[in-house]
User: Fold these one by one.
Assistant:
Number 1:
Amino acid sequence: MPLSGSRLGPGFVAFALLLAGCQQMERLSFIRPSAQPRGYTQVAPSYDVSGKKGRAESDPVLLLLSANDQLQRGQYAEAERLARQALKLRPDSGDAQTLLGAIASARGDAAAAGKAYRAAVQIAPGNGVYANNYGNWLCANGQAADALPWFERALADPTYPTPVAALVNAGTCAMRAGQPERAESNWRRALELDPQNLTALAGMAALEQERGNGLDARAFVERWLALSPEDPAGLRLAADIEQKLGDNAAASRYLSRLQAISSTSATPPRTQ
């Protein structure tokens, strides 16, 4: 029987913990997603605008580059000032609104972030990056069902550079909306493009486990752990899968690995 939104068991709980930080936000052309806490990484060189203040304060691109640099440094007030200056010069800049959303998100101001991401999609409704970001914000703020069309809009953009991000987000959000079949479709499409996508593998492992398809769940979790062998959520789910399949020896091996990792991480460093 397909999994319903109200019948999530222990396996899915482990998966949900993994997903807490895995939804992918797209930023600007000079920013890419990363595993860093704020979810993005500078990929263009920093611009030295010393001695060029006049140009820097009147060039929207330089302002956004400088604003992004300040955001990376944790200087949120200065980053916002620069981004708003860029927006003043270019009121139709979806990139400026996107950066303002990233700044607000880094500050923990979800409402301001949502307002900025919404403004970006209003400026450029067909832009896949902006659509993915707004959908991701909606999903993270209790509006999962409303978020799903935005991921579809992102995927409809032929210039969208990372469709896997939107597919993974759509799968995660579909589960939150109680639509497991839609989640499966999106995760499988993501894995066709990126067979090593951890979030999609984790999602499929947990989903198949909840459906009672232990062998399929095992196959997905083994692929997950082959890529991330010390992932606690993956080890817990693998142990649960093996227990339900009746292989207690395999379950014990996974639990032993999990215990070893927990013991290592809990041991304080020695001092000389």
Number 2:
Amino acid sequence: MANQTKADRAKIFMPFDAVKGFREALAEKERIIVPKTELSEERKEELDRRLRMIHTGDIITVVYFHDGEYVKLTGMV
């Protein structure tokens, strides 16, 4: 046991997935497919105005449509 590497010891504490792919199947089942919302001209103008206000170093949250679902992402520009 003294010759075990940290990686080998870490494997002991890794979660056990008894049924391969079960977690992925559950995650896919929980995914709710929604139709893409079309923005009105007014909302498009508002979005354009807000995009022009973004500067390097700002922390922003973006919601975008990808593969039938809306994704929310927060990060620094």
Number 3:
Amino acid sequence: MYFPLTGWAQVQLVITSLVIMATNIASFQRFESQKPAGRTEPWKKTTPLVEAIEQPLIQPAVPATRHSDSHASSSRPSVPDVPAPPRPMSAPVPISRSSYRTMPLPSRKKLVKVMDEDEPLGKLISTVSWFFHLLCRMLSIASFAHFHPLPCLGVVIAHYATMLGYLLRKTRCPDITTVTRQMCLAYVYVFALIEHWTKFTKTPVFYSFYFILVGAENLAMGITWYMFDEWEGFWYNYVFIFIFVSLALSILSAFVYFNIFKPKSKLYDPNTLSRQISTMK
């Protein structure tokens, strides 16, 4: 069957957009957990050229300073060498009982849990997983909205309300700026997960809940229109097959990433970690 050239162009544009979205989502997958180790936002990374430009262009005139110092020293009047006074004998200082009360007691160090940044191969596997996740999600929502627009809107709103409730629950005493930001982030969670502005707690449980919820929604929407609605054309068969294939590939890629390539969390002393970050910068 002939497929118009504009149709192929639209397919290519959609795939390109999904690849870009998957790459951005993978870069922010565990951002807040890796931020204490010195990781910066992708849009704030500077190139070596910019760093070289930021260096001072004019160095201080060291020879002139040395010359002025020597001239000043030569102009000073000479003083005869006077022997230094004898060093006083150090006697032991008795420690009173009250000094024990003022001595600082050792305290337990508060360690922070930091996750290392992903390796290139791990980022690639994560991007592949999110690409098939987005493809499955897009096909499920678009196909279900074609047959049942109002029920599809209800599913999306229910998912949005669930994610917004989770985000607001994690934010204590939120202000209007925080609420607005969480509302925008909850819209992103309709399609994918990013750890930005909010650090996940009990991450394996939350990820499992999210993927089970989204998978159940995608399967329910796909099976509903495929089994109970009237449709014609082979493209609907392709869409239905792609929903299941994309879901399976997404789960398989995520399983490989979380079991092989996901960086492990480590405990660091905040003071030592801040010194390491300052030396890196």
Number 4:
Amino acid sequence: MRRAGRLLGRAVLLALCATLVGCAPSSTLSLTATELTADHDFVERASVDADANALAPYDFSLELMRRCSGETAGRSVLVSPLSVLYALAMAESGATGQTLAQMERATGMGADELVGALQAYLQISGSQDSPVSLANSVWLRDSGDLSVEANFLETCGGRLAAQVFAAPFDDSTVTDVNAWVEDRTHGMIPSVLGHLSDQAQFLLVNALAFEGAWLNPFSRELVTQETFTLEDGTERDVEMMRSLEDTYLEGELATGFSKPYEGGTYRFVGLLPNEGVTVSELLNNLDGETLRDLLVPVESTDVDVGLPKFSLSYDIELSGALRSLGMTDAFDASRADFCAWARLTPGRSSSAG
């Protein structure tokens, strides 16, 4: 039980498609999102300033979880708000008008504040011994007519440390993107992209992997064969890992524990709804403040933990969840406004469709 395993790997892909005419500021883009996900706990670190934005990552995490749960009824949900926020931050750096305003309302932070928080997190997680592998990339169609705005590249390539690639957007680009994601997730995600639309002009990709070893591993001698009862009453035979932990969590609707990984920067958090409270009821009654408070340990209290061994894979097409968060214009080709990321050479016109 030394390692939490090749625990988490996820990638978020945003494809920007456009019909651009000259340098007109009314140029529009439609945004589609595809996601392969795994969880990464970021709420303790994503906002580094004790200001009005401190609760925003908590609120966004809960809202995203609720929306994804609503679209995958009956399935377990495993999402990474951190990875989604990196992809959205890159997209916001090219958005203007109502498209940008809707995205800022959904994330709970202004575009610059979000980039600042994520930039700080990159510095925190960038050490060689960090269990987190986090990478961003920008792929743009190699076209002589297309001129990418300097501010967009400065934000993505500078502050968010994204690699920037010019690519032909053919089958070779599909292969290259998948290879990049596989490398950055340590082989956990071998493929994230199946094909490229003829309309695609930009790809914004975040890849995240977490491979952590427990600071105090579960003892093999304490692993027992037990029956685990699911919320719907279904019973399953599981290998139950047992331990005594010194970080006990307690709220009005749930109790739980946290268990540190090596280095102490990251912790696994497990929450168990109280008797008579469903997982959905717990999720629907949490907000950023109550979640933050729930993660504060009860002083001088130990907890006897039983955690079943499990593995889980999950994927979702995120556009529906993001629309339900209020990002409607970004997915409407007639309304989306991403003209801040690029311009066409004056006197030329181009249809990406």
